[in-house]
Amino acid sequence: MRVLLVGGAGYIGSHVALRLSERGFVPVIYDNFSTGHRRFVDQFEVIQGEMADCECLRHALKNIDAVIHFAAKAYVGESILKPREYYTTNMTDALTLLNATVDAGIRKFIFSSSCAVYGVPEQLPIRETTPRIPINPYGQTKAAFEDALRSYSAAYGLRFVALRYFNAAGADESGTLGEMRSTETHLIPLVLKAALRRSQQVNIFGNDYTTPDGTCIRDYIHVNDLASAHVSALELLFNEGESDVFNLGTGVGFSVLEVIAAAEKVSSLRVPRAILPRRTGDPPILVCDGEHARRKLHWSPQRGLIEILRTAWKWQIANQADDLLSTPLRQSSAQHRP
Ligand code: UDP
C-alpha cells in the first residue's frame, strides 16, 4: 500500500514514514522543504512540490492508496499575528490537497489535527466530545478543516481519521530524527538547549496559573507513540472502519516546572530559568482522555516523560553538541533563578 505523506519531511511526518515502512507500507513523501529536512526522508521516494500546485499533486497522487496530511503552519502566536498565512496554508492549500485527493479517487485520508481545537476546555480530561471552541487562528483552521472532512465524508464517501495531537515531543530512539526548527518555541527543546547553555535560560511563561505550582500543565506525547497511532489509524481505514476523530495524548499532565526538573534529572545539568509574564493564548491545563483511542484504535502510548526527555536529549547532543559549554548540575546552582 502506497501512502502519500504531505509534509512528510517534517518532525512528525518523518517519524510516521519510518514506522509505516517498518509495517510494510510504502511511504511517498510530498514536501516543499520550507521547514522539512531532506536527510530525514532520503531513504524514501520524495516529490518536492507545493500543496497549492494542483498539477504536481495530481501527478503525486497517481497509484496512491491513502493520504496523510501533516503540512501546516503550527505556531499559535504567529497565527494571531499572521492569520492570513494560517488560513491560506491550513485551509485554502489544504482544501486543494483534499480536492485533488477526492478527484484522484482516493477515499482514505488522515489529518494532523490538534488539541488547539478545544481552546480553554470546560471539562478535564478532554474528551473528543468536549466542545471545540478554538481561541486562536491556528486552532480555528484545524477545526474548520475537520469540518470540511466531515462534509466531504458525508457527500463523497471519503473516510477520514482526524488525530488531535496533544504536545508532541521526544525523538526517534535511533538518534537520526528529532525536532529541528529554525525558530524553536516548544518547551522541551528549549529546556534542553538551556541545559546545554545554547541559550541563556528557559523562560517560564507565567507562574500564576491555577495549577499546583502555578505553571501550565500539558500532556506530552512521544513522537513515536504518535507515529504508531497513524499506523493504527491507517489500519482502521484499510479495514473499512468509519471516519472518526481521536485525541492522542497520555492522559497525564506535567507542569512547566515538572518538565524542567525531569530534564535536569535526565541531563544531570542545571537548567537556568526565568519567570516571564503569561504567553497570550496559553490555556492553563490541557490533558486528554485517551479512552476512545484505546478502545477503537487499539492504541495506547508506551512512553512517558522520562523517555521523551531521554530521546530528545540524545538528539540534542548528537545534533548540536559541537560547542558544548554546559556546566554540570552540582557546579551551577548559583545560576538558578527561580
Ligand atoms: N512554555 C514556556 N516557555 C517556553 C515555551 C513554552 O513556559 O519557552 C510553556 C507554555 O506556556 C506551555 C508549555 O510550556 O504552557 C508548552 O508549550 P509549547 O510551546 O511547547 O506547546 P503548546 O502547549 O503551546 O502547544
- Describe the global form: globular
Largest beta sheet: what is the strand line-up? 3-2-1-4-5-6-11
CATH top level of the largest domain? Alpha Beta
Helix content: 25-40%
Low-confidence stretches are 321-338
Index terms:
338 residues; alpha/beta; Rossmann fold; UDP-galactose 4-epimerase, domain 1; 7-stranded parallel beta sheet; 3-stranded mixed beta sheet; 14 strands; 38% helix; 17% strand; globular; disordered C terminus; binds uridine-5'-diphosphate
How would you explain this protein's 3D organization?
With 338 residues, this protein is of the alpha/beta class. The chain has 2 domains: 2-169 and 220-248, Rossmann fold, CATH 3.40.50; 187-218 and 251-335, Alpha-Beta Complex (UDP-galactose 4-epimerase, domain 1), CATH 3.90.25. Helix content is 38%, strand content 17%. Strand 1 (2-6), helix 1 (11-22) and strand 2 form a beta-alpha-beta unit. The longest helix has 21 residues, at 83-103. It is globular. The relative contact order is 0.14. Uridine-5'-diphosphate binds next to helix 7 and strand 8. Uridine-5'-diphosphate (UDP) binds at residues 76, 167, 185-187, 190, 202-205, 216, 218, 256, 279, 282.
How do the strands and helices of this protein lay out in sequence?
Blueprint: E1 2-6, H1 11-22, E2 26-31, H2 38-41, E3 45-48, H3 54-60, E4 66-69, H4 76-81, H5 83-103, E5 108-114, H6 137-156, E6 159-165, E7 167-169, H7 187-195, E8 202-205, E9 217-218, E10 220-222, H8 223-238, E11 244-248, E12 254-255, H9 256-267, E13 273-276, E14 285-286, H10 291-297, H11 305-320
Parallel strand pairs: 1-2, 1-4, 2-3, 4-5, 5-6, 6-11, 7-10, 8-13, 9-14
Antiparallel strand pairs: 9-12
This protein binds uridine-5'-diphosphate.
Residues 76, 167, 185-187, 190, 202-205, 216, 218, 256, 279, 282 line the site of uridine-5'-diphosphate.
